[in-house]
């Protein structure tokens, strides 16, 4: 059976540290605490005195003054990790925690989870090829030496880097290593920890290198674990649930998040508010509970983005399709806007079958969207998004036509407005649909707002919100008052739908009538 040694890095709330240590070791597990040396000495004395009688608790033999982005965080982790490996020989797993972490499963569940799969849980993605780093410097983190903290001394941080670049002092990476990156919150098996510590002892050049990299807590263990452990024994995910806002700040959880947290496919969560004492008490009791079953739905990240994004209308973060170069006034762009993608795709299939007008599906949402072979530019959704101007122009050129049909989701109002406001003649055909409860439930699962294990009570609370949002999307689309805007709907007559399609595609009434009568066009 799995036995966990927790590595706790913390710098505040001494009584919370004591409570957390007693709580997590009461299940028979262990903990080594590194309490930041910058914290008040009396806080550390309180922790040591309060836990003096706790046999499953030990302390890092050396304490560091830790700074965000600095080597000190890795040094503190290594100090605690070596002590845990030495003091607790029966520990099978070593789990990184912060003082803001709390369990969201029982110890019984956590042990079964770790026993089920003989692997390490650590985010580990290629540093140079992945897009894990969203903003800021990237290669410079590794190839230049960083002696100053960017947060505390921005001027010297960038001046030092600029001087190294000017003098050509970029350095080589450690021999034989593929640099990896990921979250610092991991859970490693004992033999993995032993292999990593042995590698460090055998290769002092590794410490010399990483000591002057920037934000090494995101690369040091991620790189070394990937070096000593076969790929099929690494699960590239953290066992700790952590989410971030649009501004890159960690989401903080409060008392009313209990039911949401325990449904997530993680063992712990970060960050739990220090003021959320009720939540902390309930989660602490949960860790010691037995016989508890968990309905895992894992919808928290998407649900958070959905709820916090409601009402954010009219913000545009990306360059327009047509800025600079692209289509001309001779081109006609026909946009089928539909929330029910399968209905739009039935119509595009009929357009391809009954006319010579090229029609593609949701090219920015689905890999297979009826595209011709455009080479690497269309190979991934991210490339299509990055090179969207070139993609639209290539489609027109490849088809050798002045007219093109595209599908867009009604939530993409900024893109629809961009099409309508530029040189090309843009026509919009909105497929107005009814959304019954089975569709709304399916939509919530497809978009990650709910999972198979989400309780019906939670879904019932979300149903009117989701339904209202879909109706609001359609209303906002109509309110934009586009010049060439038409609508088809299942409740309208075939003649009315055919008339709208004829104007949309500029086809004969007979062809439009056939398109309007596409078999099962509106059925779910």
Description:
Helices cover 41% and strands 12% of the residues. It is of the alpha/beta class. The strands form 5 sheets. The protein has a 5-stranded mixed beta sheet, sandwiched between helices. It has a 4-stranded parallel beta sheet with strand order 14-13-15-16, sandwiched between helices. Strand 11 (240-241), helix 10 (258-262) and strand 12 (268-269) form a beta-alpha-beta unit. The radius of gyration is 28 Å and the shape is elongated. Mean pLDDT is 89; it is low at 311-325.
The overall average pLDDT, rounded, is 89
- The count of β-strands is 16
The radius of gyration is 28 Å
Q: Give the count of helical stretches.
A: 20
Read across the widest sheet, the strand sequence of neighbours is 3-2-1-4-9
**Spans with pLDDT under 50 lasting ≥5 residues?**
311-325
Shape: elongated
* N-to-C span: 48 Å
Structural class of the helices, strands and pairings?
alpha/beta
Main pleated sheet: 5 strands, mixed
* Helix proportion range: 40-55%
Beta strand %:
5-15%
Relevant terms:
524 residues; 4-stranded parallel beta sheet
Concise overview:
This protein has 524 residues and is of the alpha/beta class.
């Amino acid at each position: 059976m799995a036995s966990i040694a927790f590595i706790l890095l913390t710098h505040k709330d001494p009584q919370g540290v004591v409570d957390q240590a007693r709580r997590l070791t009461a299940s028979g597990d262990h903990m080594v605490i590194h309490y930041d040396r910058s914290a008040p000495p009396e806080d550390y004395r309180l922790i040591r005195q309060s836990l003096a009688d706790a046999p499953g608790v030990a302390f890092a033999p050396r304490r560091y003054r830790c700074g965000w982005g600095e080597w000190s965080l890795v040094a503190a982790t290594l100090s605690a990790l070596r002590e845990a490996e030495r003091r607790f020989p029966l520990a099978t797993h070593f789990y990184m925690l912060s003082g803001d972490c709390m369990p969201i499963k029982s110890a019984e569940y956590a042990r079964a989870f770790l026993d089920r799969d003989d692997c390490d849980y650590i985010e580990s993605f290629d540093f140079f090829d992945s897009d894990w780093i969203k903003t800021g410097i990237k290669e410079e983190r590794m190839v230049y030496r960083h002696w100053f903290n960017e947060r505390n001394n921005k001027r010297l941080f960038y001046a030092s880097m600029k001087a190294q670049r000017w003098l050509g002092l970029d350095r080589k990476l450690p021999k034989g290593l593929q640099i990896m990156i990921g979250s610092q919150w991991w859970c490693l098996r004992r033999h993995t920890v032993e292999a990593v510590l042995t590698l460090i002892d055998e290769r002092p050049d590794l410490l010399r290198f990483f000591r002057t990299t920037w934000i090494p807590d995101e690369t040091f263990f991620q790189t070394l674990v990937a070096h000593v452990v076969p790929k099929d024994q690494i699960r590239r995910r953290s066992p700790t649930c952590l989410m971030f806002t649009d501004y890159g700040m960690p989401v903080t959880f409060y008392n009313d998040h209990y039911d949401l947290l325990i449904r997530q496919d993680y063992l712990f969560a970060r960050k739990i508010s220090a003021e959320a004492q009720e939540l902390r008490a309930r989660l602490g009791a949960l860790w010691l509970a037995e016989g508890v079953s968990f309905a895992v739905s894992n919808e928290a990240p998407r649900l958070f983005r959905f709820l916090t994004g409601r009402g954010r209308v009219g913000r545009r973060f990306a360059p327009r399709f047509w800025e600079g170069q692209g289509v001309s006034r001779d081109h006609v762009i026909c946009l089928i806007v539909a929330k029910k993608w399968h209905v739009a795709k039935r119509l595009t299939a009929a357009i391809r079958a009954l006319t010579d007008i090229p029609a593609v599906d949701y090219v920015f949402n689905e890999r297979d969207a009826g595209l011709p072979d455009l080479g690497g530019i269309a190979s991934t959704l991210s490339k299509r998004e990055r090179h969207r101007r070139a993609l639209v122009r290539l489609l027109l050129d490849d088809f050798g036509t002045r007219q093109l049909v595209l599908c867009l989701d009604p939530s993409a109002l900024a893109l629809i407005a961009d099409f309508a406001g530029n040189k090309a003649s843009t026509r919009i055909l909105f497929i107005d649909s009814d959304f019954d409860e089975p569709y709304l439930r399916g939509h919530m699962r497809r978009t990650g707002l709910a999972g198979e294990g989400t309780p019906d009570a939670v879904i019932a609370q979300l149903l009117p919100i989701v339904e209202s949002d879909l109706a609001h999307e359609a209303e906002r689309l109509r309110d934009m008052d586009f010049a060439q805007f038409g609508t088809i709907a299942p409740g309208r007559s075939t003649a009315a739908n055919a008339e709208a399609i004829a104007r949309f595609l500029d086809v004969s009434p007979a062809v439009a009538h056939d398109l309007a009568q596409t078999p099962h066009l509106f059925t779910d």
